[in-house]
Amino acid sequence: MSPTTFHDDRIEFINHGDADGWIEAVAAEMAQTLNHDINEVGRARLLLSGGTTPAPVYQALAELDVHWDRVEVSLADERWLSPQDRDSNAWLVREHLLKRAEGAHFDPLVRIGKPLPECVYTANLQAQHSQPPSLVALGMGNDGHTASLFPGSKDLARTLESTLPYAALDATGCPGANQWPLRITLTPHGLRQCRQRLLLLRGKQKLQVLRQALDSNDAQQYPILNAINLEGARLRVHWAD
Prior knowledge:
The protein contains eight helices and ten strands. The chain has 241 residues and is an alpha/beta fold.
């Protein structure tokens, strides 16, 4: 099968002809979703992932016509790092979105000076007292992880079964976690609360991993399936080579 075609009823697959078209289309869809909720309920909540893949999308989104002073921004996951650390997802979101999205309110997952369990508690409290997320933008690693749901993590089964939106996860020994094994991550329960779920992918290798995940249907080996096998709207996969 050509890498530019994809057929699976569990997802909505959108192929973009080039990187610029991918950036423009994803940013436009995100803005439309935020504006829908702003118009309907007065506010919107946006959950973002880190990594180099979505950074240009965030830059483009910040330039679009959104009432940013009515948008709450938080994260799908975070490394156990200060939000001021350049390797944190918080830093990436501030650098590529919040510097331009004037007025947006940002809730980091890691609070300076607070221990990890307290940060997770605060993240869950914030999620429970906020409106359901309008949108979550996810990525996927070559190991099939999404957010910080890493295959092989000793905490994965507990995290997948959690009834709270966020959990702490120790990914020690998982190659995809690199030098940052301690994480805070959305759980499947937290993903389920998001009205719209987007998966942003670039390159043929990521597409192959997605095919392998769907073929296997093993959510422990390919945690991306925990964002796919949810009731409600199908995961929208935006891909470009």
